[in-house]
Amino acid sequence: MNKRAEKMAENRAKLISAARKAFAEKGYAAASMDDLTSTVGLTRGALYHNFGDKRGLLAAVVDQIDSEMALYAQKAGAETGDDWQGLLAEGTAYIEMALDPEIQRIVLLDGPAVLGDPSQWPSQNSCLQATIQIVEKLISQGIMKTVDAEAAARLLNGAALNAALWVAASPTPEEVLPLAVEAFQALASGLLNQPAR
């Protein structure tokens, strides 16, 4: 990478880091782009060059956090050592992250309000592809009913995402969380070939 490209990547990382902090503390609407850029010693021009506008910067921050959420959820799933339990653990971990104040404010409240439907975000597409692979494996092993793998993956991911959005928007997220997790797991279990009794 040449010096100019390195500097651009460094500036981009600085802006994302500063925006992440500002959006978490103040919310998207109240975060000042002048304050944010001066915090990292850059100009508004650097922000516009890298992200187009404030909305583009939010999209980059949401993409970074949502990708971290996906990795965390996948790790939770992998730790179970079982594909089916892993699928449930991934969805559950995603829902539970709705209690994290940074995730709650940036990804689950401001993100959809400013960027639109989360299921259309690039980071959600990579989650979908990973879920499709697990679902295909579970179907081939006879653990899950023979249904369209993409349809099942979209519904599972959508259920986890909507449960997380519900938890984040609730005035009592700690009370809503166990209800959301229980319903998500019951819903997912309907895809089992032999549902647990």
From TrEMBL:
Domain (HTH tetR-type): give its ranges: 9-69
Residue ranges the UniProt entry marks as DNA-binding: 32-51
The record's keywords, sorted A to Z, are:
DNA-binding
> Is the DNA-binding keyword given for this protein?
yes
The record, for InterPro entries, names: Homeodomain-like_sf, HTH-type_TetR-like_transc_reg, HTH_TetR, Rv0078-like_C
What's one Pfam family here? TetR_C_41
Family matches, as PANTHER family = HTH-TYPE TRANSCRIPTIONAL REGULATOR RUTR (PTHR30055), HTH-TYPE TRANSCRIPTIONAL REGULATOR UIDR (PTHR30055:SF223)
| Protein's UniProt name | TetR/AcrR family transcriptional regulator
